Backbone:
C-alpha cells in the first residue's frame, strides 16, 4: 500500500500527528536531546500550506507554538501531567492528573482545537444540564432564548 504524501494531496486540509514534539517545549528534561529531523520537518511543512496543524504528544503537557503561520501543539496527556515551568531549571514534576483530550473539529474551512473531558463514571459534573438538555438544545439550535432560571437548591 502506498503511503500518502503531502505532495499527492496539495488541496486536502491536513493535520499532521507525531509522537515526539518537534520543538522545544521549555521542559528541559524533555528538550535536552532535541528532535532529530525537526528542521527537515519544518522545511517540508513550509512547502505544504494545506497542513493546518501539527499535534504531538510525548511531553505530557499542553503547549503551543508556531512555525510561521503553522500552529504546532502538544496534547495534554490523559494519563499524567508533567511540568517544571516553561524555561524552568527545577526538578521534573509529575502530577497524577489527566488533561482533557484534545479535540479537533473541522467545519467548512475552519479547524477548531479544544479540550474535552468525557463524562466518567463516578465523577459528578460541576454543572449537570442533562435533564434540561432537550429544551436547551432546541432553543440554541433555533437561535432562541435560554431560560436562566435553574433550581440550584437541590
Ligand atoms: Fe514518548
Residues:
Amino acid at each position: 500500500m502506498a503511503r500518502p504524501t503531502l505532495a499527492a494531496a496539495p488541496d486536502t486540509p491536513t493535520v499532521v500527528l507525531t509522537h515526539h514534539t518537534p520543538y522545544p517545549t521549555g521542559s528541559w528534561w524533555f528538550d535536552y536531546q532535541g528532535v532529530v529531523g525537526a528542521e527537515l520537518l519544518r522545511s517540508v511543512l513550509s512547502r505544504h500550506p494545506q497542513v493546518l496543524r501539527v499535534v504531538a504528544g510525548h511531553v505530557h503537557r499542553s503547549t503551543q507554538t508556531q512555525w510561521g503561520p503553522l500552529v504546532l501543539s502538544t496534547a495534554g496527556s490523559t494519563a499524567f501531567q508533567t511540568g517544571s515551568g516553561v524555561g524552568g531549571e527545577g526538578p521534573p514534576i509529575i502530577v497524577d492528573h489527566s488533561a482533557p483530550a484534545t479535540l479537533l473539529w473541522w467545519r467548512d474551512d475552519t479547524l477548531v482545537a479544544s479540550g474535552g473531558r468525557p463524562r466518567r463514571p463516578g465523577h459528578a459534573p460541576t454543572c449537570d444540564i442533562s435533564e434540561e438538555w432537550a429544551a436547551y438544545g432546541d432553543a440554541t439550535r433555533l437561535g432562541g432564548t435560554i431560560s436562566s432560571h435553574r433550581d440550584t437548591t437541590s
Remarks:
- Helices lie at 28-31, 38-46, 133-141.
